[in-house]
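Methods — Computational structure assignment.
A single polypeptide chain was analysed. Its primary sequence is given first, followed by the predicted tertiary structure written as structure tokens.
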Amino acid sequence: MSLKLLGAFSALLLLVGCPGGDKDDSGDSGGETDADTDTDTDTDTDADTDADTDADTDPPPDCYPTTTAGCTDLSWATVETTIQALFLTTDEVYGYSEAEALEYARSVYDHGAPPIPWLGVLSAASTGGTTHRAIVTVAGRDGLPQEGLTAEDFTVAVDGFPVPVTAVSRLADGAPKATRVALSIVVDDSGSIADCDANFVLAALESSFDALPAIYDARLIKFDSEVLVAQDWTSDADAIPYAMAHQCTGRGGTALWDATAAGVASVPEADLRLMVLFSDGIDTASSSTQSAAKAAALREGVPVFAIGLGFADIFAMADLGFGSRGAFVYVPSGEQIVTAFDLVTSAVAESYVVEWETGAAFSQVTVGATLPDGLSLSGSTNAL
């Protein structure tokens, strides 16, 4: 896809011709002088016009050479050694002992998503009148979207009081234009991101979000040690990959938590407000912290779906994702980046729209679900 650029450049046309009036009668010298003048003027004008044209039509820079070679590709032994090094100076990381951390990391290394059941209430709001709905993501014991749930499998409590569930459907099955999504995309563009990895991120931005409802606004933030709004809010889907390809950073350090805080800020009102975060490393340049970034996501009501690559901070990003009512996906190889983005958009598209009727205003909603194996899950959110 290519960005449809609006507008056109205006050019100044200089018309140079023979002067009017009487010619010089003193031989050919006057004519020669006119011809020389005309030729010089034409040459200068042509040069100026060419220079102007070149300046006006210079293409934007390409941030990444086109290549599928040199992608990140970590073995489990490398990941294991990296995690063991973390525990040389501490007894726990995000509540995990070394044995627990290795077990958790091995599961995400092998499966992409942590094989744990979870339920996230992504949003809750009125649809008009007395009808209200919540958009709920449910994962089974394998950590993947749970399919086949019906209204009988869900419960809803509004400010602590149970209300009957009137309808349940899949978000992906909704009528066109039924759900407006505001999607904030935050991409690590630090020096550790290989050009090959970046090209796979670009490919994901070109295709992965097709699974989401057709009506959405999106923004792209890229970051190294600085945070760059590469493309502000737009409904032009082509603008996002274009900005990824042509709005370049300095490829420096990693301001992961500063970028996360920026990503959840100023997200416009919508039926569903989300952030997708991609990173391959630990924070090296933020003034903010992981806990502050997670608190900002909860305060703003923007769930974070975090994607980790290679040496990504698995435990910090997983805590951010699940702690903000979003999720976490990990891939050890750059060639799996598109698959990771597809997993995230699939989790959102496979969300359930749970509806109920109530005439009273409410501030908090709790949604419960019983899975086919009998496992019960629940989650809460504040009303929009």
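Note: The chain has two domains: 76-108, 112-384.
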